[in-house]
Amino acid sequence: MVRIQNKHLEDTRMKKHSGLYSAVSILLVIVLVAGISLSLLSSGRTRPENPISTQPDRLQAESLQGSGSTGGQSSGKDNTENTDTAQDPSEPQKPDEPQKPDEPQKPDEPQKPDDTQKPDDTKPDPSGPTDPTDNPGKGDQGGSKSDDNKGGSEDSGDHGDGTGGDDGDHGGSGGDHGSGGEEDDTPRIYTTLKTQQLTKAELPDSKLTFVAYPLGKGDLHIRVRLKNETNSGNGLLLTSQNNQDYEAQLDFNADNLFVLSLYDGETFLGLVQYRVGYYANLADDTHPTVGDYPPSIVTNLDGASLDMSSQTFPLTVIARANAELGAGVIYSNQIRVTLDGKTVEKSYGDSQPTYELYFDPPQSGDEETHIVRVLAWDGNGNSTMKVYTVTYHQISEGDPAGSVDVVLDATTIGLGILDTGTLDIVEGETAASVLLRFLQERGYEPDYQGSTTMNFYLRRISRGDIAYRANVPEHLWELILRDGITTNDNYDRDSIGEFDYTQGSGWMYSINGTLYEGTGMSGYKVRNGITIYVRFTLSYGKDIGGYDSTGGGYGSLSSYCGLWINGSYQALGHDFVETDRLEPTETEDGYIHYCCSKCHEEKTDILPATGGGTEPIEPAPTEPVPTELTPTEPSDPVVTDSTEPSPTDPSDPTPTEPTFE
């Protein structure tokens, strides 16, 4: 009975405990559900996913080479900088200028200006850029190649208007505007900075002021860095009292790179870059050359008729540093072309850029005058400007437009000028069309691909015994072998064409004999008065002066220091560099050995022996002139001690034989 009662008490206790456990469990479930509910509610208020992370082009870095409207000072060198600043800041970074401890660090909660969303009272003139990606001008560098150049790898600098910016020849793509009704909340950077070229006259104190701040939704802030020769590495972190107005000290005669990075809290969103060149005053109409060593400019307007009936003209420019500075190539990022005061963007090319000129129709009558200016500068404060006055005569497409001359040249294989002729042309006709008419009228059979208006390429011309007497000049053949160009036996007496004699052979054309266009003959519209030279090359244009238009990179020689054109050989200057020296001794000659840096031609200068051990050369005899000597009186001996010396008899001096001079 006691055991049953105890068991009953025990069962009662267990029931009480079980009820307590149930209550605790229910309470825990309620707490858990409440927590999940709060979490779900709070997640609805978290920041949306950063739209930039799904649109990587929005703030893509601009290449250091910048736009053609500004250009660096590399004289052909490729000055491209790594955009390592575009890494997410969560990745390990190099320390930010440890030698400058007073440089401010990124605050935990950076403050935006009060008018970030509606900066009505601080926003610059609305005619200015409305987005950091606004950048008037596209082009390419250098330098360094470039560009690099030296020039080079360049960015267009044109960041577009909502569709994405154009890319330069070698640079990264530009950002896009990021504006529009549906993208107003997109995080982006507003700035008055732009890639440009500034001069001392425009900025006497070298201090550049600009505005930069973030736009869009989120905990946005920006970091602005200046990278130049003074502030290398990660550059100098610029600060602003109101988080939008900045001032920067520019390096003179150098490029200054501004890197603007956008953050949402601690999250890195992207960056934009602007390159500002700051140089000495450039040449202008009043001062066509500036500096002690101004560069040279050659264009296809030199020596050409400036009366034009074609509404477009492909202006080709070759600029080089002064000969005293090495005559290096000046790339397109250091060339500026304007038509009637407006900048003309480069169409293509880098070391030999081409600019498409478009002449507006006359306001009255059928002709109008236009001013073309070509400016080139180097990295040493020297610049040159050429000015051309062009008269455009408006005529309709297909109307008679004058005449052109055609020259067929095979000097490189010893045949000289094969043929010449003059043909009438019509407005809008291409060089390919003129060439085909010329060949067919004179009994040649052309083999070509493409058409006269698209992708034309002349492979070969044939006519009976056209190459019967072909003979490659010996000096040219030596240079081809030295250049490492592959040779062959693929030629015949009845035709001349690509891959004859070498892998670098073929037909090339030149306008007026000096400039080789970077575009095909189907893309070049002829004009009255020009001469079209069609020349056969054995070495990618090096033997006829057209190597630059091929883009280079063939063989081991940069030049042959001579041209085989117009029926003869035309020597160019060597660039001899000392490679070895032996100083002379007294008995043996020395020497200085030189090698041309371009064509690898060698020469040796003898340094004559110093002459210390050689036979003296006797002078030519002259008439003897006798001279008389007067006898001298004998002198008494000098007493040197107390002992009396034995006196000696004085004797008369013996007169000497006269000497002859």
Protein described:
The chain has 661 residues and is mainly β. Among the domains are: 289-393, Sandwich (Immunoglobulin-like), CATH 2.60.40.10; 400-571, Ferric Hydroxamate Uptake Protein, Chain A, domain 1 (Beta Complex); 576-607, no CATH class. The protein contains 3 helices and 32 strands. The protein has helices spanning 2-43, 431-441, 474-483; strands at 148-151, 188-191, 196-199, 207-215, 220-227, 236-238, 245-249, 254-264, 267-279, 289-290, 296-299, 307-308, 312-320, 329-330, 335-339, 342-343, 346-348, 354-358, 367-377, 383-393, 400-410, 416-426, 445-451, 454-462, 495-497, 506-511, 531-537, 562-565, 568-571, 576-582, 590-596, 602-607. Strands 10, 12, 15, 16, 19 and 20 form a 6-stranded mixed β-sheet that branches. Strands 3-9-8-5-6 form a 5-stranded mixed β-sheet, with no helix packed on it. Strands 11, 13, 14, 17 and 18 form a 5-stranded antiparallel β-sheet that branches. A hairpin with a 5-residue loop joins strand 17 (346-348) and strand 18 (354-358). The chain is extended, with a radius of gyration of 41 Å. The N and C termini lie far apart (168 Å). The model is unreliable at 1-9, 42-181 and 626-661 (pLDDT under 50).
